Amino acid sequence: MRLWFEWAMKGKQIQQATWLAVDTPAKATAAAEDIGSSKVIGIDTEYDSLRYFREKLCLLQVKAEKSTYIFDPLGNLDIAFLGEYFASPVLCKVMHAGDNDIRILKRDYDFVFQNIFDTYRAASLLGCDRLSLVNVVREYLSVEFEKQKSMQRSRWDLRPLKEEQLHYAALDTAYLPELYLRLQDELEKAGLAEEAVRIFADMTKVRWQKRELDKEGYKKISRYYALTDIQKERLKRLFRWRYGKAKESNRAAFMILSDQDLVHLSEVEAGSITELLASGFLPGGKLQHYGAELMELLGGCPAGTEPR
Question: What pTM, to 2 d.p., does this model score?
Fold first, then answer.
């Protein structure tokens, strides 16, 4: 589907751009032709790092000369062909705070990146202290546009996506090529172009790292120091168990049990799941899933045992 979106520029001028949801081989071929014939492309992703233990890549947007192409990593289309363009030393890839985008794309597709330009890093190098995309576009292009925070936090992992979500995603790359030209000119005037090149080259080397258990993380939970030694030991057990469950199910830890849930469970004295349910600390659904494991964890520790 190809759609138009509009944005208002300073002075009431209106610009238009197109985006295309790439969901067939024919559309992928058209996208490849446009990307391959462009000198500069913009790149952005939408991923969910809130609800998942391991960030989930949900969309990839590429702004080429003719259109913005939206690729769905959760669909059936193979997007590995984009690796040729991301690795090209000739084609300039423009991103905004693209470190995590690069990490996740490398993780999921083993892409290699060369010749990138990061508008966040460039603006920072030039002394800009308000570095959101909206503010950088306003500062250097004198363009006003609005990005709804509620849309940023929307469910990018659910299908079908809403049309307004796709508009939002396309807008993230709409200004990147133009912003690159302006910022590159400013860097050259300021004598910072070579330093910027070194910074961007370092960005291409970033790698995704597995999330490791913070073995002392339970001590950072509010009210930890108000607990007894036995309760602290329970909290440690619960904290480490939750990490394992989150990793196993690829769900955010708070969706297993919240920090407050862990503290409450550490404090409760219950000899059975029925008693635990009667305590009111957890809804029945949680107990149905985890009740037996929680009872084992809440068995306590021998008197005088010090938490490690």
Answer: 0.87
Each residue's pLDDT tens digit, 191-201? 999 999 999 99
C-alpha–C-alpha distance, residues 205 and 187, integer Å = 22
The answer to whether residue 13 scores a pLDDT higher than 50 is: no
Q: Which amino acid is at 118?
A: D
Question: Residue 48 half-sphere exposure, CB side, CA atoms within 13 Å?
Answer: 17
Residue 238's nearest CA partner among 156, 170, 152, 301 is: 301
Q: How far apart are the first and last CA of the chain?
A: 58
pLDDT digit string, tens, across residues 130-145: 999 999 999 999 998 7
Structural domains for the chain: 2-203 (3.30.420.10), 217-297 (1.10.150.80)
Cβ-contact 171, 147 below 8 angstroms: yes
Q: Are 105 and 57 in contact (CB under 8 A)?
A: yes
Strand (E) or helix (H) holding 26: helix 25-37
Q: How many CB atoms lie within 10 A of CB 192?
A: 16
Burial of 272 per CB tally in 10 Å (0-12, 13-18, 19+): exposed
